[in-house]
Design a protein that fits this description.
- By secondary structure, this protein is an alpha/beta fold.
- It folds into two domains: about 140 residues, NAD(P)-binding Rossmann-like Domain (Rossmann fold, 3-Layer(aba) Sandwich), CATH 3.40.50; about 210 residues, Rna Polymerase Sigma Factor, Chain: A, CATH 1.10.1740.
- It is about 45% helix and about 15% strand.
- The chain has a seven-stranded parallel beta sheet, with helices on both faces. A four-stranded mixed beta sheet has the order 9-8-10-11, with helices on one face.
- Strand 10 and strand 11 form a beta hairpin.
- The chain is globular, with a radius of gyration of 20 Å.
- The model has no long low-confidence stretch (mean pLDDT about 95).
- The structure holds nicotinamide-adenine-dinucleotide and magnesium ion.
- The site of nicotinamide-adenine-dinucleotide (NAD) has 26 residues, from helix 1, helix 6 and helix 9.
């Protein structure tokens, strides 16, 4: 039985992970689950999944909850450092990090230092500190297996291949709900419109990132660090049906694609069973229903966020950390109706232009750049 430490258990990925684990009771069980804002949901999950430990990283009446968790025989950890404490323990085999945002960085690093396998959904960790995270993973022999569907697709296409024979990675993007809209449309976009993604049902932050195409930008940076290729070997193609999850082109012009229905349970299960596969009852793709797969060049002028991500990666140092933190702040401001949809890229660009880049990427530099960018964006609202 593989023991799982699941951070962000109450979110969209977290729930899909619980679903997969419940389907394989012989293979998987939870050592730890965590949540940040909904402690009732954490308690309910603890009741149904019976982990050893439940971690709540947000604010709550801790004494009352400690008593409540004790009645069901689940240890309750809370407060600053509780996630890192759980990640540093030896009671689990794999960390599934499904926290949203750079808030997932420190606990990922704690699990890496503990030489655990990391099944990573939390792409912001790699965007903010890819060099540090991959360096620490290598040093501590901690495999990082992607959960993000595009990266899982690339990972699957690369099984048995030689990285030197890869010409380029082709990340597919749905294009989001505003794919065919002109830039002028963005000024009056409502939160409800932006949250209405055509193909995927996801958390609020990544849904907005998909509408701005920043999600694809973050994924380019994620792919850069995960697969160790050059920036010009990573390209993006718009594929509105989200059936091809990504592709690898090899030096002999052959292309491998990973295909399936858009369902995050597939890459989550693969990350947990890799290098094996286990039979499941998830819905199967019927090709007759998807007989018109289409592809377009991304429009990086209309969707400026994608270009900003390419530029921040080319710039290097702490620029990607600033891109990520400025984006997080701008997205939450949009979700809280403090700024317009069209202001998201403007605020990020402004932060990138005003940031003094730290060429040496240390954890301190990443965290201070992240904090600086958040403050910069929040003061501009
Ligand atoms: P979500 O908002 O649905 O869930 C986020 C989870 O993280 C919740 O359990 C929440 O309690 C926890 N959390 C929030 N802020 C936290 C903080 N400051 N500290 C600790 N925990 C915190 O988000 P999601 O859609 O499940 O996405 C999670 C991650 O997975 C993101 O990085 C996202 O980009 C990535 N991802 C998601 C999908 C998807 O389909 N949802 C697909 C690919 C990648
Ligand atoms: Mg993705």
């Amino acid at each position: 039985m593989r023991k799982i430490c699941l951070f962000g258990a109450t979110g969209s990925i977290g729930k899909s992970c619980v679903d997969i684990v419940s389907q394989f009771p012989q293979q998987f069980g939870f050592a730890t689950i965590s949540a940040h804002s909904n402690i009732d949901a954490l308690f309910e999950l603890a009741q149904s999944q019976r982990p050893q430990t439940a971690v709540f990283s947000g604010d709550a009446d801790f004494n009352a909850w400690e008593r409540k968790f004790r009645t069901i025989g689940v240890e309750f950890l809370h407060g600053t450092g509780a996630l890192e404490e759980a990640a540093a323990r030896d009671d689990y085999d794999v960390l599934v990090n499904a926290i949203v945002g750079a808030a997932g960085l420190k606990s990922t690093l704690a699990a890496i230092k503990n030489s655990k396998t990391i099944a990573l959904a939390n792409k912001e960790t790699l965007v903010a500190a890819g060099e540090l995270v991959m360096g620490a993973a290598k040093e501590n022999d901690a495999p990082i297996i992607p959960i993000d569907s595009e990266h899982s697709a690339l990972w699957q296409c690369l099984v048995g291949e030689n990285m030197e024979e890869v010409e380029r990675l082709i990340l597919t993007a749905s294009g989001g709900p505003f794919r065919e809209k002109p830039k002028s449309f963005f000024r009056d976009v409502t939160v409800e419109q932006a949250l209405n993604h055509p193909n995927w049902d996801m958390g609020a932050k990544i849904t907005i990132d998909s509408a701005t195409l920043m999600n694809k930008g973050l994924e380019v940076i994620e792919a850069y660090w995960l697969f160790g290729l050059k920036l010009d070997q990573i390209s993006v193609v718009i594929h509105p049906q989200s059936i091809i999850h990504s592709m690898v082109e090899f030096v002999d012009s052959s292309i491998k694609a990973q295909i399936g229905l858009p369902d995050m349970r597939v890459p989550i299960q693969y990350a947990l069973t890799y290098p094996q596969r286990l039979p499941n009852n998830l819905p199967r793709l019927n090709f007759a229903e998807f007989n018109n797969l289409t592809f377009f060049e991304p429009d990086t002028v209309t969707f400026r966020c994608l270009q900003l991500a390419f530029d921040a990666l080319a710039e290097g140092g702490t620029s990607p950390a600033v891109l990520n933190a400025a984006n997080e702040e701008a997205v939450w401001a949009f979700l809280n109706k403090k700024i317009g949809f069209d202001q998201i890229p403007l605020l990020i660009e402004d932060a990138l232009e005003n940031h003094s880049n730290h060429r040496t990427v240390t954890l301190e530099n990443v965290l201070s750049s992240d904090a600086w960018a958040r403050k910069f964006v929040s003061e501009k609202q």
